[in-house]
Design brief:
alpha/beta, Rossmann fold, seven-stranded mixed sheet, single chain
Length: 258
Amino acid sequence: MFVTQDDPFYVRCFFDEFFKVYPDLSEIESVVIQRPMGKKTTGALIRQMVEFYGPLDFLRMGDRYARGMALSQLSRMFPKEEWFDLKRLCMAKKIEVRYQDGIHQPEFLEQLRENKIDLIVSVAAPTIFKKELFELPRLGCINIHHAPLPRYRGMMPNFWQLYHGEETVGITIHKINHRIDEGEIILQKQIPINPGESLDTLIRRTKRLGAQCMVEAIDMLKKNKVHYKENKPGEGSYFSFPTRRDVQRFRAMGNRLL
């Protein structure tokens, strides 16, 4: 079972690639979609995005969102998979979609037990998993983080790796435990950053590459061939969501968001 968020820009890139390369989609019990950014109100989310992107890039993202919504509606009359939103993409692959913010509610946990879920996969899930959830599946819960853990724990890891002038970005698949981004590492790879690559392009590219890594990690778990690597928080770093000043410095260094 996947847990993700209703992100109209990037999460779909992951699932589009995952559905193309995973060998048996019938193994996917469902995709649980949560509200973006967790408990933030729509107004708070918009204010955060305006502050992050700035007025011009925010309008560009708004235009992209509007075009995506229009194509999604149009796809109801003219079914084209590249126009589908995440829900319709899952439906096209015959995968159940659930909208569920309260994934720790007793009735939801009981459903998971009844369905004998083997593995829960977090893809940009906006909820911190609690013990009663991450200890429930037979193979546990795993998460994809776009950074070389334990470095760059926290939010917007691709932004912070560009900000610090890294030549590569990491992709880490790790187990979920009671601390954020500190579970044992299952698989880890480094991906070169292309010269002049924008944050937007980098996120899209690494979402697709991350999907391929996830397929590999799941196969390792199924075959019991994982050699876990310790994720030492004392050797790492943690970053929160970038402030307006962080974005100004990011741009001053010649980086682009879009």
